[in-house]
Amino acid sequence: MPEPDSTGRDTPEPQGSPTRPRGRIFQASTMTAMLEGVYEGTTTIAELCRHGDFGIGTFDRLDGEMVVLDGRCYRLRADGTAGEADPATRTPLAAVTYFHGEYDWRMTDPVDATELRAVIDNWLPSPNMFYAVRVDGHFDHVVTRMLPEQHRPYPRLIDAVAAQIISTHTDLQGTIVGFRSPTHMLGVAAAGYHLHFLSGCRTRGGHAYDFVLRSGRVRVDVGYELVLRMPRTQDFHTAQLGRGDVAGEIEAVLQGGRRP
Ligand code: ZN
Questions:
Q1: CA of residue 104 to ligand 1 center, whole Å
Q2: How far does residue 106's CA lie from ligand 1's centre (Å)?
């Protein structure tokens, strides 16, 4: 990333190819819509993958956690089944980007999730940008969660999470995929890290609560352009978005905390 221009002008945009632009994140729907139970998918996986080759999300009615890695979209379900997603399936919330690995670091000492987030925070040039985060390595353990498929009337996310399926995977290769979003984007995205995990064999994973990375490679891209698509559905139009303790509820549903 170029150094910020002290004259106040915007910095030149990093170069990317027309088909794989740099720094652009495409997102379908928002975290606040998830909090209020807007779970029905509107964007197909086929379309999502035209906007990026790397990202995370969920599937129609929360039926599976999504990892998009190296251009393939994986669906990890609460019943333990996993595989590539049907391109016709729809997502109610996902974010993707073209991943280039602008920053590239090696981790040689074991770190847990909290420590790794702090290390990456320390490396980043500013807390006010988006970052796509990829960590390939060997993990002593990874704790993941998945949610069961939801049905109408849809519960709020804080209540749906009560039925989460927690899995612990030990001693395995894999990849952490996700984003670090700035605090000023709270509600559109999470403030902070939202990370998913996919095993090296591509058959295990989910939303990552906790892990210990024994060693690995950390790559990060700066995101300075957000394309946000809001659902044109009755559920989205009528939801009471932004009510309540948005920060506390997002923290609780993403980091495994209790109801605030
Ligand atoms: Zn997640």
A1: 24
A2: 25
Task: Give the contacts of 2 (CB within 8 A, at least 6 positions apart).
Answer: 11, 12, 14
State the distance from the centre of ligand 1 to the C-alpha of 44, rounded, in angstroms.
18
- Sign, CA dihedral 127-132-135-139, equals positive
61 is a domain residue = yes
> Which residues line ion ligand 1, judged by CB < 5 Å?
207
Tens of pLDDT along 159-186?
Answer: 999 999 999 999 999 999 999 999 999 9
Query: Which amino acid belongs to residue 145?
Result: R
pLDDT at 256: 72
Number of structural domains found in the chain: 1
- Is residue 185 a part of any domain in this protein? yes
Tell me the residue range of the domain where 159 lies. Answer: 19-254
For the chain, percent of residues with pLDDT exceeding 70: 93
Residue 104 lies in a domain: yes
User: Does a cis peptide bond (omega within 30 degrees of 0) precede residue 153?
Assistant: yes
Q: How far is the CA of 220 from the centre of ligand 1 (A)?
A: 18
- Mean per-residue pLDDT for 193-210? 96
Residue 198 belongs to domain with CATH number: 3.30.1330.80
Q: What is the pLDDT of residues 129-161, one digit of tens each?
A: 999 999 999 999 999 999 999 999 999 999 999
